[in-house]
Specification:
With 243 residues, this protein is α/β, with parallel strands linked by helices. It is built from 7 helices and 11 strands. 32% of the residues lie in helices and 18% in strands.
Length: 243
Amino acid sequence: MATMVAVSDFHIHDDSKLEMIKKFVQGMYALKPDILIYLGDVGDPWEETWDVIRATQSWKELSELNRRRRGEGLTNIWVNRNHDYSARRKYLPGAWMKSEYRAEGLLFKHGWEFDWIWNGFDFIWNVPLFPGISRVAYWLSSRFPRFSIRVWSRLRTLPCFKKETPYQTKARGAREDWNRHVGLIHLRAMDYAQRTKVRLVIGHTHCPMVYADLLADDGDMTDSFSFLYIQDGKWELRTLETS
């Protein structure tokens, strides 16, 4: 069986995470998984334009990793979603872009699909009753990138967007404090996995967790520096050593 790594939520828009990116790249050279799956939000065009993002050394490090891996016959997959929705296939050289990915009985999704903030409330998990904000946000970020960046910079000054408030205690306290937002996403994801009879892997929440053999959340490369390692069909959460 293929060895796989699922990793998400780098949110690259500058080189502030460059040292972490370099350690991740070296870690992937050492692990050498058969399939490397980026589960969304690799770049963050809500913070900067794609031209700026792709010019960063951080983005170049990932691109070089993908090129070298592809030259060795290894596979790189980019499941782009809410923050990097406006990305184009050529933006991350060496990686195949997909909306979701299936391999060896596992289904890889970003995870935004199960987030009511993005997709609205629903009746039986996947039948929307109220629209989310995704269509508006995607349209703005695609058509008016500079304007959407200015809107986001203003929104994140509001109390509900500040990471030190209870509204966004995601990764750092998630294992002990299973908050309402992340909890609902995980419940909906588990329900989906049970109904569709798949083993599901997601990102998006910045909350690394594993639920038996049903659902795995790989966490993020922003707060928890975690990724999911899969070997012989068994998954394991690992943390990038940043010290």
